[in-house]
Amino acid sequence: MARTTEEDLGQLERDIRQLKIEYEQYFGGGKSRPPADIEWRIETTIKRYGDRGAEMNYAQRFRYSNLTQMYTKYREMFRKRMKQKEEGTVQRHFGAAAREIEAERARKQAEAEKKASANKPFAVSWADPDNEKNKVEQLFTAFREAKAKSGEDTESLTMEAFQRFVRQKTNELKKQKDVHEVEYVVTVEGNQARLKARVKS
Questions:
Q1: What is the pLDDT of residue 104?
Q2: What is the DSSP code (8-state) at residue 55?
Q3: Can you spell out the DSSP letters for 37-93?
């Protein structure tokens, strides 16, 4: 018994959805060949009803048009992915679980790098802090951040007082050791920020 237009359109919709599923399986490696038989069936139905548009009512023509657009969109997408596959540039699409694992791994790596960066000593050297104020500012910022991370009070730490301190310390070390350059290192030891000055050989 011949099928009705409604039944044909219903089958067309199922075929288009099945085509998408089988193409995904093909691109994912689950099938060895693309679903050409379903594609041929869809093309045949679309062509048949394209020639019989006048026999359909408004609702059927509207549904047919939507299904045709859906198929055209999928076909273009499949054509591009097929080309990528043939050229060896196809991108692997991981499942949701794999994406979660990758995201978690990236998050842990970022945290580890951030922690390592936070514990990494900050060092800067100069001959005269008054002539290299940008370095003094960098050292001040690093020391202030280290104190804040250690939970220490930073309100009493001012740029002016810090500048006086490093100027005095630099001059003292240069006189004692007869050197031209002094290095300052900011570290965190035992949850406490430390600022160490040493002559640079």
A1: 75
A2: G
A3: HHHHHHHHHHHHHHHTGGGS-HHHHHHHHHHHHHHHHHHHHHHHHHHHHHHT-PPP-
